[in-house]
Amino acid sequence: MKRSLVVKVTAGLDAPERCSQAFTVAAVAVAGGVEVSLWLTGESAWFALPGRAAEFTLPEAAPLTDLLEAVLAGGRVTVCTQCAARREITGDDVIPGVRIAGAQVFVQEAMADDAQALVY
């Protein structure tokens, strides 16, 4: 049975190491053939906008743009509905392939029989 991984990242530029860890875990899982759903919540919601991931730097860490591209290529990226609304981010604003969805969808993904969920 193929397992899936749901990664919820709540940090952005305010906690760069935690943010980078979440993106790194998601990208490595995708590279390993795991079905991945990366949720951008709180300050990480900004990374759903074009060019924002390029503003992120952390010494000794992979570029966030590369990690995000890897997850988009082989997994799913979602911005929390409320987090997007608080930041006035709409579906027209986000990088192609990113969706906006709410807690009900997160719970469905996290509670799937084959799912493992991580929160950063």
From TrEMBL:
Q: By its UniProt entry, which InterPro entries does this protein fall under? A: DsrEFH-like, Sulphur_relay_DsrE/F-like
Query: Which domain of life does this protein belong to?
Result: Bacteria
- The name under which this protein is listed is DsrE family protein
Q: Which organism is it from?
A: Streptodolium elevatio
Upper taxonomic lineage: Bacteria, Bacillati, Actinomycetota, Actinomycetes, Kitasatosporales
